[in-house]
Amino acid sequence: MKKGDHLFLVDGSGFIFRAFHAIPALNRKSDGLPVNAVSGFCNMLWKLLTDARDTSVGVTPTHFAVIFDYSSKTFRNELYPEYKANRSAPPEDLIPQFGLIRHATKAFNLPCIEIEGYEADDIIATYARQAEAIGADVTIISSDKDLMQLVTPNVHMYDSMKDKQISIPEVIEKWGVPPEKMIDLQALTGDSTDNVPGVPGIGPKTAAQLLEEFGDLDTLLARAGEIKQQKRRENILANAELVKISRQLVTLKTDTPVDMALEDLMLHPQDGPKLIAFLKAMEFTTLTRRVAEATGTDASAIEPAAVPVEWGAAAHGPDLDKGEASGGPAAPAAAEPAKLDAPKAATPAGARESEAFAIERAGLFKDQPIDRSLYETIRDIATLDRWIADARETGLVAFDTETNSLDAMQADLVGFSLALSDSRDTGRPGTIRAAYVPLGHRSGSDDLFGGNDLAPNQIPMAEALPRLRALLEDPAVLKVAQNLKYDYLVMKRHGVEVKSFDDTMLISYVLEGGIGTHGMDPLSERWLGHTPIAFKDVAGSGKSLVSFDRVEIDKATAYAAEDADVTLRLWFAMKPLLAARGLTSVYERLERPLVPVLARMEERGISVDRQILSRLSGELAQGAAALEDEIYQLAGERFNIGSPKQLGDILFGKMGLPGGAKTKTGQWSTSAQVLEDLAAAGLELPRRIVDWRQLTKLKSTYTDALPGYIHPETKRVHTSYSLASTTTGRLSSSEPNLQNIPVRNAEGRKIRTAFISTPGRKLISADYSQIELRVLAHVADIPQLRQAFADGIDIHAMTASEMFGVPVEGMPSEVRRRAKAINFGIVYGISAFGLANQLGIERSEAGDYIKRYFERFPGIRDYMEATKAGARDKGYVETVFGRRIHYPDIRSSNPSVRAFNERAAINAPIQGSAADIIRRAMIRIEPALVEAKLNARMLLQVHDELIFEVEDAEIEATLPVIVDVMENAAMPALSMRVPLKVDARAAHNWDEAH
DNA sequence: CCCCAACCGTA
DNA sequence: GTACGGTTGGGGG
């Protein structure tokens, strides 16, 4: 540093408190995290860094530092134990912001300085004097009177909130004394907030007058007897010693042992991406935009940083991948298994506060009932532009598409709706406005003679789409949707890629997994007590169903705008609860990022060979027909074999076979199990029925149905994944379900040969080996299981060996089969009844097995008991990543209902943790492939398996990338006690790849 | 036309 | 014993 340089010193700690009280507390992140002080801080820093010359500071800094108090205990407490003793704890909403402001400082590439045992003011004083000595100028960003003693011709202060420079004249004007006498003045007056004693009856005015008269404090104390006013004289004489202590307390140290030299405070250029990542994480949309513009950074390409939030004493939910996104060191410490039997941790104060806030915000619109008559239909570009400008101004918009099909791969855009509220930026409950923009509605009926014309007064699609794209692709505007994956796909097919979004369905899924469903209508009922217009009341149903482009525009407006309105209200109600319950990481790491990943998988689809299916269908038809003839012969009459009722009547009524089980409704059961038992007794007919069922099942469900799902344009099959329809966190697949394609026997596996790669490519199938048992070994921490997985030995054989004392070498297959059934049973929340069923043995024998198993693996029993107890206690269980799965019926008085819930509660953390792991792998795999410059495309997920389509030339390079990402998917959030193992191979069809 | 039960394919 | 979705038959409206 040299003469002429200009050092800015920001009083960070002082700023936090001032900004916190100056900016409305409703200024929060969308998940409820209070960020008002952080917001003010960032805006102030940005202003000073870019614009200081245009403020009343009038100069641009060359050096810059932000200074913080380290802790409340400093050397002053040794001097005077009562110093700052009357400080109360900071407000709960402020606590998490202390850490965030330090993160902000670092994001701005600024030194963040704090020293144990010293106050920020001492550090500031030290640097100010050092710089001044060199001949540099100093501006202290603070308006705290405690710092005014530092002001000189070269050292100034700046009140950033009032944009006011504080120099010598300003100090004199305010306090009546020049800066160098501020110490004496403060010593005389004391400071009630810091608990610094002063002289009773002496305030700033009197103190200034006395100092004017006597020159300085020492002279005043020496000649106090000359003071004319009796009371004042007595008070000063009585408190002379205390005043000397006060003077020491208020005198700032200018020799604080600072680590960083002045040179180190030199201002560096902003790191645009780093800063933007932080600002996005804080959801400061306006500042993000400004920084992006100023640094020439493409903000849309930057992911929000993972900023750890500390609520104070108690942990605040699992902090997934702390440091991962910020590029810091990984934290591979093994997470403890859920200690469900431990005393419950006290709810963090911050969490309580946030929950209260969430409830308050949920009720924000209570006095603003949903009124469909207020919805607007936007029919001209000027109005649309105004709405989009408003959305960009508030940074928040609910969005919903209306299309002519429920299938996102076929749907054409018919219109879209928007809902806005200005609540976020004003900190007050705003008015919700919602509108529908019809684009492709048609007039009249779609008969053969016309009626296909566009209805009048609609904005042309070609003019609306670019405007919509500007909004949806703007990373500074948070788009809120319900089941966004659908809208994301529709818009992607229209050339628009949504960036920055929230999905109310996924928020609900994270908050209330296991409680109800997460569709918009049930959510509206539960959270808003409002019943939205039913789709069928707008578009009809069944035979009278019309596509949405035939719906009259006024009706469409009421329906569509309401959807956006409700979605926005749901978001306001639910989003804050994520943070309040410590579930933000689950949502942001396991749910939200999967939306574009799944959308791309669905869009890609998989190639299915029509010819193979057609040939198989013929073979199956022939086989079934032959069996039908034999069945009618054996039964002595023709009947509908596919009707379990008719079949039961024939078998157990007419033919008088020994009936096995009965169904819930009292009918004879004709399940495969019952028929197999009869077949085992040598009966022909049941055998034929079982075979016939298999063939007709394959035919109707697969070979006949799949061709109907081949997309007319892509010629591929595009399944749809549901992110929020299982309780455990698994995905589900439908239309068609590609997660239940046969594999277990040769006949069924033929179906898989129809799933093929395009020429020049192959399919890679990569599946986790025994992932659920590995998760079990991890969470229950079972030494033998951990050892077996570490050594890579056959887990079922090991179990059998432990239980029955049989050596693994030369083990009879039946022994291993039983152990395998027990291992599976454990994962499913074993019961003697179920195991007996599975193995075809007596309940008592199954019970003995279980008993023996628990003797050998007592940790498993402990885990199961602890899981049940925890579920009973809290109403939910958790996966290793903190996903909650609720079991509201686990306390049912009905023993079978209760037992069922207990088994499900035992299974859920295991199945759910495995599901979370593959979710993480799926989120990471695409960036990893891009990084490796590979073109593999992920197509399908089948719970523990991922299917890719890969160019022939890249297969060898791709396999290890996929395996690596999958095997390490739990890291670094969780370092498992057992390794994950993935098998992967490539082939031209799914059967051979698997 | 809608819904449920039974059955069966997958992990 | 856990978690799903699809097909069929069949009852009720």
UniProtKB/TrEMBL annotation:
PROSITE patterns: DNA_POLYMERASE_A. Single-chain monomer with multiple functions. It holds the Pfam family 5_3_exonuc_N. This is DNA polymerase I. SMART domains: 35EXOc, 53EXOc, EXOIII, HhH2, POLAc. Keywords: DNA damage, DNA repair, DNA replication, DNA-binding, DNA-directed DNA polymerase, Exonuclease, Hydrolase, Nuclease, Nucleotidyltransferase, Transferase. In addition to polymerase activity, this DNA polymerase exhibits 3'-5' and 5'-3' exonuclease activity. GO terms for biological process: DNA-templated DNA replication; double-strand break repair. It comes from the Bacteria. PANTHER family: DNA POLYMERASE I, DNA POLYMERASE NU. Residues 375-579 form the 3'-5' exonuclease domain. Residues 327-337 have a biased composition (Low complexity). InterPro entries: 3'-5'_exonuclease_dom, 5-3_exonucl_a-hlix_arch_N, 5-3_exonuclease, 5-3_exonuclease_C_sf, DNA-dir_DNA_pol_A_CS, DNA-dir_DNA_pol_A_palm_dom, DNA/RNA_pol_sf, DNA_polI_H3TH. SUPFAM superfamilies: 5' to 3' exonuclease, C-terminal subdomain, DNA/RNA polymerases, PIN domain-like, Ribonuclease H-like. The keyword DNA repair applies.
